[in-house]
Amino acid sequence: MRELAHVVKLVMMEKKDILLSILLGFSAGITAVGLFASSGYLISKAALAPPIYTLTVMIAVLKLFGFARAFVRYGERLYSHRATFTILSNLRVAFYKKIEPLAPQIFQKYRSGDLLARIVGDVESLQNFFLRVFYPPVVLVLVFLSTIFFISFFSIYLALVMFVGLILTGFVVPAYFALGQRRLQSRVREERGALSTEVTELFYGFRDLKIYQQLDVKEKLLADAAGSYVGEQEREGKQAMFNQSMNTFITLLVSWALLALGAYLTVEGQFEGLFLAMLVMISLTVFENAAPMAVFPNHYEESRRAAERLDEVVDGEPVVGVASSETVELPVGTAFSFEMKDVHFRYPGESRLTLDGVNISLPAGSKTAIVGPSGSGKSTLLQLLLKIYETEDGNVSLDAWDYASVDQEDLWGVANVVLQENHFFYGTVRENLALAKDGLSDEEMVEALSAVKLDGFSLDDAVLEKGENLSGGEKQRLAIARALLRSERLWLLDEPTSSVDAVTEAAIFEKLFEAAAEDTLVLVSHRLTGLEKMDQIVVMENGRVVEAGTFDELIRMKGYFYEMKEIEKSVFM
């Protein structure tokens, strides 16, 4: 039950609907007992040919129970389902609030298919928690205890047998089957996650699989995953049917035991035979309330495992980018400075340091290029500046403030960011540019497109999901156009023109430098051309800063940067 503690808290937020559901559920159960008890008594009484007014009153009572049962059952369904949907909504919101700060680094721990299975499938599974796990035992106990109390006026022995039936069908049998269900439910969840992962991989990599003629291999893996999932579902279904059959069998045994004991007590003169039919009808009806307990183990384990898998995602994960209690409110329209002192960083689960003792200073209003070979830590350094990750050791400061006091979203709100991979949503060019900020006019968007040499684009041109109809260079230029439209005074650019031709790149950089003339600009690039205008160039290799200075200073040093420049000349000239 520990795994479901936070789910119970969310359930208890809907106290009014829960109380009404339980009250109406109890009323529906007890009126059903009253309906069948009075019908059994009516049958026995009618056999003795009583006065007609006696039968008339009993028939009226019978009808009253029938109407009452219908009305309270409707109310019970209304409030219990309303509570369920509200609880499910609260659960989705609560889980999203927990998982949202963990993006995007959470994708390093979970594959997207498995994460999707948890967010969608496991959350949906918890809709059964209130209706199938939390609510039925409460109603069952209330109806049974009320019925047992009523029967005790006729015979304490019959009441004891009924109480034993309550313990067996309500607790002992479900608890026994819950133990066996736990391992089975775990396998079903894992197989569903595996299937979702394989499906996602197939869709994402379909084109490459076709090109390399490996689609059959992947389809076989998908079929195997589907077969395993279906097999586990079949075993789960068989187990659920067996649980239900055993529970029904035990309820019938208890009903037979009540009938046999009632007949014996009648013969012994300790129980009036007129009430024997009523006793049988009560036993058959009251155990209808125990029927949901037959599937209780299945739904309990399903809910417990779903909550556990969701907790695995959000619990124990460091929330990156959230400022300390002493939050700094970043001023708008300011060109900030950065400083890193002895910064170390490694990605979660890796032993190798990605950044090893980095020391850099980026003055306000300066233009800095960070260069180096692939894997040298350039992009990681920029992601630390964006607070996408936290440093393992060392200090990062923004102006006079420590990064611990800077909120991630506040930082992003004052920055123009272009990453290596930029997402484009299904829609139009206008809709994707409008992400930059509110209130943009069409004229401003057209001007931004012109600045990045996308004059041929119309604002109404379609953009497919993930920008599938755009080339690599068009995606990068569209991302730069968004940054230009944002027009903040901090520019953080990660390989913004790696897929753009040299002529277009030079024209775009001219516009960028013009727009960021008084701003702080950090450019990560593996290209060494066009860096002459930079105030400083930071050269990285194997996670360390090996050189830093202006273009002319680095050339005169004839160190690592000079060698890289000479190699670039020999390749491209």
Automatic annotation (TrEMBL):
Superkingdom to which the source organism belongs: Bacteria
UniProt cross-references to SUPFAM superfamilies, sorted A to Z: ABC transporter transmembrane region, P-loop containing nucleoside triphosphate hydrolases
Lineage, uppermost ranks: Bacteria, Bacillati, Bacillota, Bacilli, Bacillales
Membrane topology, as annotated: Multi-pass membrane protein
Protein name (Swiss-Prot/TrEMBL): Thiol reductant ABC exporter subunit CydC
Native organism: Sutcliffiella horikoshii
PANTHER family from the UniProt entry: ATP-BINDING CASSETTE SUB-FAMILY B MEMBER 10, MITOCHONDRIAL, ATP-DEPENDENT PERMEASE MDL1, MITOCHONDRIAL
Cited CDD domains: ABC_6TM_CydC (cd18585), ABCC_MRP_Like (cd03228)
Matching NCBIfam families: CydC
Record keywords: ATP-binding, Membrane, Nucleotide-binding, Transmembrane, Transmembrane helix
Domain ABC transmembrane type-1, residue spans: 19-305
Pfam families documented for this protein: ABC_membrane, ABC_tran
Subcellular location: Cell membrane
Main location: membrane
Regions crossing the membrane: 18-40, 52-72, 133-151, 157-179, 248-267
ABC transporter domain boundaries: 338-567
